[in-house]
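A further point concerns the way the authors explain their paired sequence and structure data. Nothing conveys this as quickly as seeing an actual entry. An entry of this sort, consisting of the sequence and the corresponding backbone structure tokens, reads as follows:
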Amino acid sequence: MGRWSDDRRSRPRARVAQLALTCAVVGGLLTAGCRSEQPSAGPGPAAAGRDTGLDAQRRAMVARQIAARGVTDERVLAAMRKVPRHEFVPPEVRSAAYEDRPLPIGEGQTISQPYIVGLMTALLEVHEGDKVLEIGTGSGYQAAVLAELTPNVYTIEILPTLAKRAEETLRRLGYNSVRVRTGDGYLGWPEEAPFDGIIVTCAPEEVPQALKDQLAEGGRMVIPVGAENGIQTLYVLRKRGGKIEQKAVIPVQFVPMVGPPEARGRSSEEGRRGGGARGSP
């Protein structure tokens, strides 16, 4: 697996190790659920209105669940203080929007635990202007966080109902630059490749070759890998010289990544299971 130096943009090597160490200290299996820079302006949830009580809960979520556990990228923390997570969950669970756990969003899927969103976003090391692909739109929350960091966000959701709802939510909140597609995440988005970053919010049993191919030279991919009912591991992949290097970060538990059976090399019955969008509770 080895180590690497970030020639594309100089970053402290110890950042991923620091985050992984913090996770180890916290202990237990996490469920899905840097350079200090000024946050970009981003589109922001201008149309959503403000609620000072929820604002306070959101600030507390970032301070206690994310920053306190080792995520130090200020741009990521600022984005998560800004994006209204409660707008991305159904009304019946909105009161729990800022709790440290995944929440159901329908179709058997969940919105990831806030910490895992913060960790994965920090590991992706998004720079303003980067082109980022997300596999597994789900509620649209992760895409909104990414859109606070770069205007070039592309996201794919295999379930049409979730894709439509997420796009409506993103537009309502002013995230008009995010491009949403209903489709098979195993295939990526080849006509828009290459991508500086790829983030996958569902777990394949192995990294899809199409996503490796669509990663730009020097680009990074953050992806959970493993069997649905077995041990899954969150990896950071980096392309150097056309080759993929990978590093394991922490154990996680996500819903399985779903696509046509031929994409997965598995039976048609297996190909119908799961939703492939969010981390499991």
